[in-house]
Write a structure and sequence with these properties.
CATH architecture of the largest domain: Orthogonal Bundle
CATH topology of the largest domain: Cytochrome Bc1 Complex, Chain D, domain 2
Oligomer: single chain
Number of strands: 2
Distance between the termini: 20 Å
Helix content: 25-40%
Strand order of the largest sheet: 1-2
Radius of gyration: 21 Å
Strand content: under 5%
Number of helices: 10
Order of helices and strands: HHHHHEHEHHHH
CATH superfamily of the largest domain: Cytochrome c-like domain
């Protein structure tokens, strides 16, 4: 946000509606970095998405369409260049668990070394092995969170799937699992790509997206 924490404290302290809220939350109108971090942490921990169609499918209260089910199988299926008819999209290698992510920083093959513009995590750690690595994002509500990739280069899920299907670039820090697909691509035809996207759309949680507790408090 191109802002300093010190200046945020000054701005919040100058507004009575915020000092009143800090009195309610902490018993004192004094605004500090620690109190801000605690308030943000507690708010963020309250943001839970767990009512997508896929969540209801797991709970046995919703049924996936034929296309969504084919996409689910592809999503969780392992890539295997030697058995193209049964090879999966291998998405769960990086997007796993309840939140469809892995808490790691990875290079997902967007560029070659010569084309790196943003060095990503290396700018924080100073480790060259972190070059062009970025936080693996959750796929929950991915249908409505474009543009995609760290630099927003893709506008649609079709472009995202197309990248992984055929355009992963080799570089010094690209994830080995992705590098292993470069000889053949994921081998997904247009119908399989559509099925995969339809599955990704089952991760959209409209209950979460319309929850007024997450809307503008003013």
């Amino acid at each position: 946000m191109n802002e300093t924490l010190e200046n945020v404290i000054v701005k919040l302290t100058a507004r009575e509606e915020y000092t009143n809220q800090f009195i309610r939350a902490f018993g004192s109108e004094e605004i500090t970095a620690l109190k801000i971090s605690l308030a943000l942490e507690n708010f963020m921990l309250s943001i839970v998405s767990d009512d997508s169609k896929y969540d209801r499918y797991l709970a046995g209260t919703a049924t996936l369409t034929d296309s969504e089910e084919r996409g689910r199988v592809l999503f969780f299926g392992e890539y295997n260049e030697f058995f193209p008819t049964t090879s999966g999209a291998d998405c769960a290698h990086c997007h796993a668990g309840n939140n469809f992510e892995n808490d790691l920083y990875m290079n997902n093959g967007l560029d070659t070394d010569a084309d790196f513009i943003d060095f990503g995590r290396e700018d924080v750690t100073s480790f060259i092995e972190d070059r062009a690595k970025f936080k693996v994002t959750s796929l929950r509500n991915i249908e409505v969170t474009g543009p995609y990739m760290h630099d927003g280069r893709f506008q649609t899920l079709e472009e995202v799937v197309g990248h992984y299907n055929a355009n992963v670039q080799n570089s010094s820090t690209v994830d080995p699992a992705l590098l292993g697909t470069t000889s053949t691509g994921l081998m997904l035809d247009e119908f399989e790509q559509a099925d995969l996207i339809n599955f990704l759309k089952t991760l959209t949680d409209n209950t979460f997206l319309t929850n007024i507790e997450y809307s503008d408090p003013f």
